[in-house]
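Lecture 7 notes: from sequence to structure.
We start with the chain below.
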Amino acid sequence: MCGLSAIINKKPYPVRSELVSAMNDKIIHRGPDDFGILTVNQIGFGFRRLSILDLSEHGHQPMVDSMNNIVVFNGEIFNYIELRNQLKSEGEKFKTETDTEVILVAYRKWGIDCFSKFNGMWGIVLYDPSENRIVASRDRFGIKPLYYWDSPDKMVFCSEIKQLAALPSFKPKLNDDVASRFLVKRQLNTSNNTFFDQVNDLPPGHNMIYDLDDHNYKLNCYYKVEDISINSEISFGEAKEEFYRLFEKSVSIRLRSDVPIGSCLSGGLDSSSIVGMAASIGANNLSATTISSCWGDKRYDEQEYIDEVIKSTKFESLKIFPDINELLSSNLLSEIVYHQDQPIKSASHFSEYAVFRAAKETGLTVMLDGQGSDEFLAGYIPFRFYNADLLKQGRLLKLIKELQYQKKNHYGLFSLISHNLTHMLRSTGVDLSFLKQNSNKVFSRQLLDSVTPRPQDKKAFSTYRESSFNEIRYTSIPYQLHSEDRNSMMHSIESRLPFLDFELADFMLSLPDEMKMSKGITKRILRESLKPLLPEMIVQRHTKKGFEAPEEPFMRKNNKEVRGILDRAIESNRAFFRPDDLFQFYDDMINGKREYDNLFFRLMSYQLWAERFEIIN
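Predicted C-alpha cells for the same chain:
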C-alpha cells in the first residue's frame, strides 16, 4: 500500500525531479518506509512505499524491467503467487518475491489484458517505451485511488489530489456541480469528477492508454457489473457451498502479509463474518487483534454483539471510546477533510478514523474490514423492490407472507406500509409527484440550478438488481471506498476488503434475489453459509448501525464553534445560500423547534475543506 506520482511533459523537455519529490512529500503518510524518484525523457515517476510484502529493497519503486518498462503501483495483487507460478510455468523469470514484479512480467506476457487477471486493489501507472505509451489502470471497484489532471502543458497522475498543490501551475478551483450535489443532495463520489475542477479519477474497472506521440488518451472499460448474468440454475444448497468456498479463499489470500494483521469489528454481520472466517483459517500471521469503536450512548453502541464474536473466536478485543468533541477541540475535522481531499458527509467518519488510529498505535499495519457486502447482498433493506416485483408478477399470497415476515423482523406496521407503498405504486405507473415537498428553501437558485441532471438521478429502479448496480457504481461503494482509503492511509494502514474480491463479487451478483433476501431476511446466503462460524446472536441480528457517531449531540454541545464556522461559510459562499432562511432553520434546530438536519455538519466540513485548500470559488 503506497502512493504514486507521475508527470508527463507535453513538450519535449525533462521533468524536474524536485517537482516529483514535492509531490512525494505530500503523501509521506501513504508510504513512510521508502521512496523513489525516476525521470526518463519527458516523464517523471515518484513513489512512497508502505512495506507489506517482501520488506527488502527488492520492493523498491519505481521498478524497471529488462525491457525498460517502468511501473509505479499502489495497492496489492492478492493472487500474485498463483500468477507468478503460472508465468514461471510458461518460461518467465523472476528476481524478487514482490507482486510489483508480477505486474511487469504479466504486462510483458499479456499486454493490457493482464489487468483482468489480477485479483486485488490497485492504482497503476506503467511506461511502455516499445509502444511509446503510458498505461494507467484502476481496480474493478475503485478500492485504490488514481487521479489525473490533464493541463495544457502536462498530464499528471497521483494517488491523492493534494499532491497537485506541489505544482506551481496548479490552481485549485471549485467544481460547482460536485459542490452543489454535496450540499443539496448529500452526494459524494457519484462520478469521476472531483471537488477540484478539471481533476478526475480514473473510473473503477478502467484502463487509460496515453499516447506519448500525440498526447491523446482513451479510456478502456475492462469490467462492468452489468455484464454478470443471473444463474437461475443453481440450487440454494450449491450456492451456500460456493459462497463459503469463495469467501474462505478471499479472506485467506488477504491474510498474505509480512507485517501484523488485525481486523475491524463492529459487531455487525459483515465484520463478524470476516473475523469468524479468519479464526477458522487460523493463519499464523494474524495478530488476533480486533478493534471496535464503542460509545457510552446506547443508541450508537454495539458492544453486546462484539462480545459475542470475541467469545466465540478467542481473539483479543481492543475497544476504543473516541471523544467526538476532538473534531473541533483539536482541529481534527480540518485535518480529516484535508486527508479526504473533500468534505465529509457526517461525523461517522470520525468512528472509522479512530479505529485506524488505534490500529496504528497498536502496531498493526494491515486491517481487514467488511465494506461491500451490503451493496451486493441486499444489506440496505431493499424489500420495496422485491415486493414490487411480486406485485407486478401477481404473486399476492407470496407478497402478503413477505410483508408479514418483514414486519416481524424490521418494521412497525406504519413504517412497513410507508416503506413499501410509495415504491410499489410508482413501479406500477402511478403519478406521485404531488407528494413532493420543497425542502431546499435555504439554498439559492444559483446553487440549485448548478446541480446538473444525470440519467441515474431520475431513474426509478424497478428491481433490486438495478438498485444494487447503482449502489456499486454511483453511490454507496465509491463513497465508502474513498473514505476507507483516506482514513486508513492517514495512519499508514493498509485496509483489505474480502467482500470485494472480484470472484466472490461476481458470484454474489449472479445469485437470484431470493437467495439474498427472503422471509424478511437480508443477506440470506451470507447468514446461511457462515452459520457454523458465527454466534447465533449475530446470525439472527436484523438491526444495522454501521460506523455511527453521536453527531447531533456533538453539534449542540459545540454550538458556539459550529456557528463561527457557519458564519465564515455564509460569508465565503453568499451566492450559494439564503442566509436569513439558513440561520433561522439552524436556530430552530438548535432550539428544538425542528428535527436535526445533517446539512449544517456538511456545510461546516465544506467550509473547513475550502479553507484548507484555499479553493477559488
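Points to note: DSSP finds 25 helices and 17 strands in the chain. The radius of gyration is 25 Å.
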